[in-house]
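Priority: medium. Attachment 1 of 2:
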């Protein structure tokens, strides 16, 4: 039996074509899988980045309290002018409400306690067009904005006083042209100072 070179050459060319076709199909499948897998990884990375950015954009409200004695009147009471500067130090819009100043005379010692049991509670107010005071509405602070709220306190006698400023704030998002509360939980901000009144 004689070896047929031509037939062998044709069979080998057919095998080579089949192997080439399988290699092309395999390479295409691998490329599709790789692109799909990279797309999934990139989507996961984008989601993680969005979550991290959201965590960094928590509402941040800085409160600075300043005070100075006001001129004394003929009465025995002392008067104190207290200002609270509310500043949005975060990236998210902040809404604050119900700024309240609580003042009480305290007796210094191991356990600070109320000296006379008297507690003064002042809520923030606005002066309206008619010249009367009304409760301050909710205030909006965009990133970097600041607002000052003033209180005028009458103190019955000399001594040490604890001043405590409280306000509730939360993040806000702009939806359809209006600020709406974000998913963040409201935060109760409290700042304190002790002063001596002569």
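Attachment 2 of 2:
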């Amino acid at each position: 039996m004689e070896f047929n070179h031509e037939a062998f050459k044709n069979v080998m060319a057919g095998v080579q074509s089949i192997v080439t076709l399988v290699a092309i199909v395999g390479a295409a499948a691998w490329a599709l899988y790789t692109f799909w897998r990279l797309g999934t990884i990139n989507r996961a990375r984008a989601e993680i980045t969005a979550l991290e950015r959201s965590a960094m954009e928590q509402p941040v409200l800085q409160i600075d309290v300043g005070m100075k004695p006001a001129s004394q009147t003929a009465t025995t009471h002392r008067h104190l002018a207290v200002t609270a500067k509310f500043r949005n130090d975060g990236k998210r819009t902040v809404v604050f409400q119900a700024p309240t100043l609580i003042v009480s005379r305290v007796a210094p010692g191991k356990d600070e306690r109320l000296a006379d049991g008297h507690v003064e509670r002042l809520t923030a107010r606005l002066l309206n067009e008619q010249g009367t005071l009304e409760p301050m509405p909710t205030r909006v602070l965009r990133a970097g904005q600041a607002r000052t709220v003033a209180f005028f306190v009458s103190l019955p006698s000399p001594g040490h006083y604890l001043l405590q400023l409280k306000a509730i704030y939360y993040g806000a998002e702009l939806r359809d042209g209006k600020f709406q509360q974000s998913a963040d939980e409201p935060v109760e901000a409290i700042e304190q100072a002790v002063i001596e009144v002569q």
